[in-house]
Specification:
Layout lengths: L13 H6 L1 H19 L7 H12 L4 H12 L8 E8 L5 E8 L2 H14 L3 E2 L9 E10 L6 H10 L4 E4 L3 E6 L4 H9 L5 E10 L8 H16 L3 E6 L3 H6 L1
Length: 247
C-alpha cells in the first residue's frame, strides 16, 4: 500500500497548525459533539465518538475540552445542527482531493469549497469521482528508536491484529483494518512502544509527484485555504508535498 499520513508528511503544515491550535481544537470539539449527539456518550459503544476522541488526544487536546464537547452533544439544550458532507474534486494537474466537512449551512460550505478549488486551478467533481483512489485504514504511529527491533515490532503488530508495518524516515506506521482499529489500538496502548498518534484515515493508493513550482504553489494554497475554513474537518490528497518543498 502506497500513501502518506499526517505523521509522515506534515512538514508543510506543522508551523501553521501549531500557530492555530485554537481553531484545530474547535474543529475537534465539533466532531466529538456531533458523534456524541448521534451515537451516545459512551465511546465503548460509539465507534465514531471513540475515533473522534482518539484524534483529539493525538492533537494534545485537553481532557476537559473533550469532556465538555461530549456533554454538549448529550445535553437537552438547543444547539446548531451540523451535517457531515464529503466533497471530492481535482486540484491542479489533476491531483485528487477528498474534503470532509461538518457544517450548519451546506449551501454556504459548498459555495466556499467550490470557490477554493476553482481559484487554485482545480474543480469539484461528482460523488465517488476520486474516492476509488484511496483506501480507508487505521494507523498507529510509533516513534522510531534505535532500541526497537523491527522484526519484533512486526511480530508484535501482527500478533495483536494489525495488517502491516510501514517503515518511514522518522517513525513506524502500524496499519490496521478500520473494523479492528479500536481493539488493536488498545493492545498497543498497553504495549511496550511509544505512540505518537493514531487515527482512521484515507490513504492514497498511489502518490503524485509535482515538480513544477507554479503547480505546487496552487496545490499548497488550496490546502491552506481549506484548512482555514471552519467547516472543513479533514483534507485527503495524493500529492507528495514534502518532495515538492525540497525540490
Amino acid at each position: 500500500m502506497a500513501g502518506h499520513s499526517k505523521w509522515a508528511n506534515t512538514k508543510h503544515r506543522k508551523g501553521r497548525q501549531d500557530a492555530k491550535k485554537g481553531k484545530v481544537f474547535t474543529k475537534l470539539a465539533r466532531a466529538i459533539t456531533v458523534a456524541a449527539r448521534e451515537g451516545g456518550p459512551e465511546p465503548d459503544y460509539n465507534a465514531n465518538l471513540a475515533n473522534a476522541i482518539e484524534k483529539a488526544k493525538s492533537e494534545n487536546m485537553p481532557n476537559d475540552n473533550i469532556e465538555r464537547a461530549i456533554k454538549k452533544g448529550t445535553s437537552s439544550e438547543d444547539m446548531d445542527h451540523y451535517e457531515a458532507i464529503v466533497y471530492e474534486g481535482y486540484g491542479a494537474n489533476g491531483t485528487a482531493f477528498i474534503v470532509s466537512c461538518l457544517t450548519d449551512n451546506k449551501n454556504r460550505t459548498a459555495a466556499d469549497i467550490r470557490h477554493y478549488f476553482s481559484k487554485n486551478d482545480g474543480n469539484l467533481g461528482s460523488t465517488n469521482c476520486v474516492s476509488y483512489l484511496f483506501d480507508r485504514v487505521g494507523i498507529i504511529a510509533i516513534e522510531k528508536d534505535k532500541d526497537i527491533d523491527e522484526d519484533e515490532l512486526m511480530m508484535y503488530a501482527l500478533e495483536n491484529g494489525a495488517e502491516d508495518v510501514r517503515i518511514e524516515e522518522e517513525l513506524y506506521e502500524i496499519l490496521i483494518s478500520p473494523e479492528n482499529y479500536q481493539e488493536v489500538l488498545g493492545n498497543f496502548k498497553s504495549g511496550p512502544y511509544k505512540l505518537l498518534g493514531s487515527e482512521v484515515t484515507l490513504i492514497p493508493k498511489t502518490m503524485v509527484a509535482i515538480s513544477e513550482k507554479e503547480t505546487y504553489n496552487k496545490i499548497k494554497k488550496l490546502i491552506e485555504t481549506l484548512e482555514d475554513n471552519d467547516d472543513v474537518q479533514e483534507i485527503y490528497h495524493n500529492v507528495k508535498l514534502d518532495e515538492i518543498e525540497e525540490s
